[in-house]
Design goal:
The complex is a heterodimer of chains A (741) and B (130).
Chain A (H helix, E strand, L loop, with lengths): L1 E3 L6 H10 L4 E3 L4 H11 L4 E2 L5 H7 L6 E9 L2 E6 H33 L8 H30 L3 E5 L6 H5 L16 H4 L2 E4 L2 E3 L2 H13 L3 E2 L3 E3 L4 E7 L6 E7 L15 E7 L1 H12 L23 E7 L5 E8 L11 E6 L16 E3 H5 L7 H6 L3 H10 L4 E4 L2 E4 L2 E4 L9 E13 L5 E11 L2 E12 L6 E4 L7 E2 L28 H4 L8 H12 L6 H13 L10 H9 L7 H30 L6 E7 L2 E8 L4 E5 L16 H8 L6 E5 L5 H7 L20 E4 L3 H9 L9
Helix pairs in contact in A: 4-5, 14-15
Chain B lengths: L2 E8 L7 H9 L5 E6 L2 E6 L2 E8 L3 H13 L6 H4 L4 E8 H5 L4 H15 L2 E4 L4 E2 L1
Antiparallel strand pairs in B: 1-5, 1-6, 2-3, 3-4, 4-5, 6-7
Helix pairs in contact in B: 1-5
């Protein structure tokens, strides 16, 4: 037996020296009993030291030359390392010869028991024959083990190494997370270690794992071709090439594309039919989004006829390397491009059954185009329904895709955007996402993406705007804004934004792509900032609300040079501009907190209103804001459920005086609530004055001259104080929508 | 929720004339003041519009006391403010305020009405005396 005498730093070092034949050994000893009792039973559980290099070894023509380590067995602080093929021989000895021997040994024991019980004569020839068989088998095993072991040792295929070299082996054996002291290559992604060898120089995995494997081999410095989808073989694949021998090993994934209409049911994120040119592809998915299954004939699915398409499934187009496209069927309300390797996401649909504008104040499911494009301080649901979704922008930024098309069923009619009315065969809104890229992050850590979105309706282009998407914390979706949000700290010019690779909920990783475009590449700043300027700007931005006017002006100058100024509310430049134009007598120090409080209070109130609607609605799609007509005039209800209306006050609430027009004071508001067609509920999260409470309870203020129509003085339900919001939601929130509704 | 309210609290004895109110509000930059009768005014500025209405109802003093009890710690003269029995109500749309341009004219209007009446400005929604 040999033991490693080199100074090797770790197992990688040892494997490398072993591969090069530069490892040196000294004699060591192990007896046959130890091999039999300790080594053989552990053979099956021995761990590959470099499992993920299978494909690379294959390319190098050295398959089965990998090293394994018997981490479950130690001999005086030494582990046994051997070639995988030697281990396989030992496994065979253990599994076959020793198991046969054990069977014979059990039979011998039975015979000896019978002798002891007087049922069998001790000189019975069966007994002697069994003993002879066992001795012969044992000798054969000893010989085989000795031969195998001796040859392995002679060829330096088995040797001892110090256990210090494989520190962390116990953690590795226990499945602990990788650390640098552990040498079982545990940082290799599961998507790589689960590749199956299907033929010489060919490994196979699942489609959704291919991008991860590809990224891994690229990161390993292996010569790696791009991932391609080959319609002829219906596989996606890439090749890795050994730089020395030129040997190629293929990593592939069968795609199992849909070839007939009947196969369409139940599949998701799958190629449908054969490739077509882009023009045809766009025409196909547009027709599919209108429910016309016959369009599939263009991609070779001739039996679709008037068949019914899965209503809520999206369709997409994946562009192949030769410029043609394949139609893909996604899943309900999504396409998970991680399952579609070897193609660039070029387009997808937003099915009409999934995307519709929520009812507006007048009950109509349409919004003026101008309203859709108007900057809003809070997320605007109608915009996020009509536009490509926030997730669409984020995924395109992650994948570095420029020019992704989103086909919708919305139309622009008389400057209003709505879902296409039944029978409307006119042009739909078709969006293109251009240059989606991460520009930075808000101070709370949420990433911010910027893109241009172009919406076409036939030959018209009613939408052509920059948009900003602020991610949610999971980075898979977010909200769309028409202006750059306040607080965003931009990435340094020219520095690639760090990429995450998730395309659909963070479950799947995809190929690592370089940053598509940075802010600097998209628009030349007036005067590029030096690294020191950038650092200064970021430092000031982090605490901009608390800055004095001098530092605030400095920040605005830096933002102007970087091309970041928007003059939107609650930005440094808006604040400086507001201060410069204020007519207030206050000093900046007193004016500043009032500026922020006023804007934030209004913004918070509007957000809280939206939250109340969402909480009351509970996913049913029935709760909206609504303008109710009363005999005294219109009354804006913050939330309207099927049975009640709700008024929300996020702070204290006073009884302001009766007045028929203009902004509605609370006294007049209550008078109108008494005339509403459904009971009105007031939710005051602060404290209501006694006078307001009295009026809500039906007691009008003394001496107040109330004229005009009046309703019954039925008490109006009031939720008040810290828990008012939750109490109202608990009492009046709709039950969750059932799955089958 | 869409209506926000700031008030200027003061003594009823200091209620100004309609002309004085219009003159005061008209000093705001680019302001157009409409007299709606009964001491109610609409002010339109470049930053948006808001309404101003006088309220001298008996409950005003009770709500003044309420405000002082809740948030009067920042005042130099809380006991005095708690006796104020008149107020101008400045009513605005939260959406205009959130869009950023209404703050300056509203603040200036409140400050000037406070100066005219020797009163104090109170933001009822946020519970802050200015």
């Amino acid at each position: 037996m040999l033991a490693v005498t080199d100074i090797v730093n770790n197992v990688d070092d040892m494997v490398s020296k072993h591969d090069k034949g530069t490892l040196t050994f000294k004699s060591a000893s192990i007896d046959l009993l130890q091999i039999g009792l300790d080594v053989l039973p552990a053979a099956r559980g021995a761990k590959l030291l470099n499992p993920a290099k299978s494909a690379i070894q294959e390319a190098k023509g050295v398959a089965n030359m990998r090293l394994v380590l018997f981490d479950a067995v130690q001999f005086g602080g030494q582990f046994i390392v051997m070639y995988e093929r030697t281990k396989e021989q030992l496994v065979e000895i253990q599994d076959k010869q020793i198991s046969v021997l054990a069977e014979k040994y059990r039979a011998l024991i039975d015979l000896q028991t019978q002798v002891a019980e007087g049922k069998l004569n001790a000189s019975d020839p069966q007994l002697r024959q069994k003993q002879a068989d066992i001795e012969a088998d044992a000798k054969a095993i000893r010989d085989t083990v000795t031969t195998t072991w001796t040859q392995a040792v002679q060829h330096q295929a088995t040797f001892f190494v110090g256990s210090h070299l494989v520190g962390g082996h116990e953690e590795a054996a226990a499945g602990a997370k990788a650390n640098e002291e552990t040498h079982f290559e545990r940082e290799i992604p599961r998507e790589v270690t689960t590749l199956r060898k299907t033929a010489a120089n060919t490994f196979e995995g699942e489609p959704q794992n291919l991008r991860v494997a590809h990224a891994h081999y690229q990161a390993e410095g292996v010569q790696t071709s791009a991932i391609e989808y080959d319609p002829a073989t219906d596989t996606a694949h890439f090749d890795i090439t050994d730089k020395t021998t030129g040997t190629k090993t293929r990593i592939e994934a069968p795609m199992r594309s849909v070839r007939s209409f009947s196969e369409l049911r139940g599949v998701q994120n799958t190629v449908v039919g054969h490739p077509v040119d882009k023009t045809t592809g766009f025409a196909v998915i547009e027709k599919l989004n209108r429910g016309d299954a016959s369009a599939l004939a263009s991609v070779g699915i001739g039996d679709a006829g008037g068949g019914k398409l899965p209503e809520e499934h999206e369709f997409g187009l994946g562009e192949l390397s030769n410029g043609t496209v394949v139609v893909v069927i996604g899943q309900e309300a999504a396409v998970d491009w991680a399952h579609l390797p070897g193609m660039t996401p070029r387009a997808h649909t937003h099915p009409p059954s999934v995307h519709d504008i929520p009812p507006q104040q007048n009950g109509a499911r349409s919004v003026p185009l101008t309203e859709l494009l108007m900057p809003t301080p809070v997320p605007y649901l109608a915009r996020e329904v009509v536009f490509p979704t926030p997730a669409d922008f984020i995924v395109m930024a992650h994948l570095g895709v420029d020019g992704h098309v989103v086909v919708t069923d919305f139309v622009v009619r008389d400057n209003n955007v709505m879902k296409a009315p039944e029978g409307d065969t006119g042009p739909r809104l078709i969006f293109t996402i251009l240059g989606s890229h991460e520009i930075g992050a808000r101070t709370d850590g949420r990433k911010v993406y910027k893109a241009k979105v172009v919406g076409k309706s036939g030959s018209e282009t009613p939408i052509n705007h920059d948009v900003w998407v602020v991610q949610d914390l999971n980075d898979t979706t977010g909200h769309i804004f028409m202006t750059q949000p306040a607080d965003v700290v931009l990435n340094e010019p020219g520095k690639a934004a760090p990429h995450t690779e998730s395309t659909s909920g963070g479950e799947h990783a995809t190929e690592q792509t370089p940053a598509t475009k940075t802010e600097a590449q998209r628009g030349a700043p007036k005067a590029p900032l030096t690294p020191a300027d950038v650092k200064r700007k970021q430092a000031l931005m982090k605490k901009w609300r608390a800055l004095g006017i001098t530092e605030l002006r400095e920040l605005v100058r830096l933002r102007e040079r970087a091309g970041e100024t928007t003059y939107e509310p609650d930005t440094p430049e808006h604040k400086v501009n507001a201060w410069d134009h204020t007519e207030s007598d206050k000093t900046f120090e007193k004016w500043s907190p009032r500026y922020h409080r006023a804007l934030e209070n209004s913004r918070f109130g509007l957000e809280r209103e939206a939250e109340l609607r969402a909480r009351l609605d509970n996913g049913n799609g029935k709760v909206t804001s609504k303008v109710v007509q009363t005999a005294r005039g219109a009354r804006q209800m913050d939330a309207a459920t099927p049975t009640r209306y709700f008024q929300l006050k996020t702070g204290d609430a006073w009884l302001s005086r009766e007045r028929p027009g203009g902004q509605l004071p609370h006294l007049e508001a209550i008078l109108r609530d008494r005339l509403a067609d459904k009971p009105v509920v007031w939710v005051v999260e602060g404290k209501a004055t006694q006078q307001l409470r009295d009026m809500l309870a039906g007691k009008d203020p003394l001496n107040e001259k109330i004229t005009g129509p009046q309703g019954p003085k039925t008490p109006i339900e009031l939720f008040e104080g810290e828990g008012a919001f939750e109490a109202a939601v608990k009492k009046y929130g709709l039950p969750p929508k059932k799955e089958d509704e | 929720m869409s209506t926000g309210t700031w008030v200027v609290l003061f003594r009823k004895a200091r209620v100004p004339s309609k002309e004085a109110v219009i003159a005061t509000l008209s000093t705001l930059r680019s302001a157009k003041v409409t007299d709606r009768g009964e001491m109610e005014f609409t002010v339109v500025t470049d930053g948006g519009s808001f309404d101003v209405a006088l309220n001298t109802q008996s409950y005003v003093v009770e709500e003044a006391r309420f405000a002082v009890d809740r948030n009067g710690e920042a005042l130099d003269n809380p006991d005095e403010v708690a006796t104020y029995d008149a107020r101008f109500e400045l009513l605005f749309d939260h959406r205009d305020m959130a869009n950023g341009d209404l703050f300056n004219p509203l603040l200036a209007a409140a400050e000037r009405l406070a100066k005219l009446t020797s009163g104090v400005v109170y933001e009822t929604d946020s519970g802050e005396f200015q």
